[in-house]
Amino acid sequence: MSVEIQPIEIGGHLVGSHETPLVIAEVSGNHNGSLDRALEIIEAIASSGAQAVKFQTYTADTLTLDASGPQFRIRSGHELWGGRTLHDLYEEAHTPWEWHATMFERARSLGLIPFSSPFDPTAIELLESLDCPVYKIASAEMVDLPLIREVASTGKPMIISTGMATLGEIDAALTTARDGGCRDMVLLACTASYPADPGDARLLSVPTLREAFGIHVGLSDHTPGIGVSVAAVALGAVAVEKHVTLQRAEGGVDSDFSLEPNELASLVRETAAARLAVGPPRFGPTEAERDTLALRRSLYVVEDVRAGDKVTQFNVRSIRPSGGLATKFIEVVLGRTFVTDVQRGTPLTWELI
User: Fold this and answer.
1) What is the CATH number of the domain that holds 193?
2) I need a labelling partner for 36 at 20 to 30 A (CA). Which of 27, 165, 265, 281 fits?
């Protein structure tokens, strides 16, 4: 039997198996180099009903080297970024540090939880100055145990993405976070490919990780559309993270696997519906089914009859609504005799025959 995991609080929102799923909208590089566009995306996220907006805090130089060797290039056949150097890609995608205060302020003014993924200690220092309420560890960084320890020392909740990770690596990351001072954590199941194929989502990892580590689990989803995220919530995911842009057709480093605002709104609605739908098993009619229960078929007198008439297939039938004898008794009552006059439309009872 699975152990009940208590909800945790992230930015004033409860996150847990019985709570509305936390929908995290990732801006990433979809600002396309414009602060105004970043703010417009934040406003669209707030209008969608999502609860949180996430950024990434790095520069190209804090993340990699300005080098062109093969190991510093995306493979040439990559669907989105083939042949680009890491430094060039991160230079285009990074969010300038001087934008952060404005973005955090705008998000908070709209009721969103703003937070970020730091990639080095200087990023943590910046985010702490902005009172970042929660931190995200990206999939590629979850093996950077010194970074995890530094983030954990803030005492803030942590969301740790597990793309590419073995169970041993996940265990090491969680142990490091706990030893570093973090008490509230959420793991995100993740397929770290961009875009990701739904067939690679392996969503049964959501309940598996929950049982293995006794921790809340969500999904970082890079597949097209919202179907995979909704399915993850049905399997117990407490949070879903999706990249968001204004219009995919406008391009950008992440646009191909990002949702547009109307799709994000659908994600919010459908994941909330999925959470409500996954209740404990029960059988028999619910209170909500009461009206329909009255429409079950039963045996009715369908022609006017007189006392002494035989019950036949022509004067008694199985019809809607309920109220008469159960339909299983039709063979029992056929051939019996009515003991009184009965009007058409009367439910058949034992007292009438």
Assistant:
1) 3.20.20.70
2) 265
Q: Quick one: tokens of 224? A: 């097209």
Question: Whole-angstrom Cα distance, residue 161 to residue 151?
Answer: 14
Residues 248 and 306 in one domain: no
Indicate whether 54 and 14 sit together in one domain: yes
Q: Are residues 157 and 295 in the same domain?
A: no
Which tens digits make up the pLDDT trace of 186-212?
Answer: 999 999 998 999 999 999 999 999 999
**CATH for 330:** 3.90.1210.10
pTM: 0.89
Cα 333 from chain centre = 54
The answer for residues whose C-beta is within 8 angstroms of residue 74's C-beta and 6 or more apart is: 81, 82, 83, 84, 85, 86, 89
What is the DSSP track for 212-223?
A: HHTSEEEEE--S
**Sheet with 316-319, edge to edge strand ranges:** 316-319, 298-301, 346-347
Range of the domain at 138: 8-58+94-277
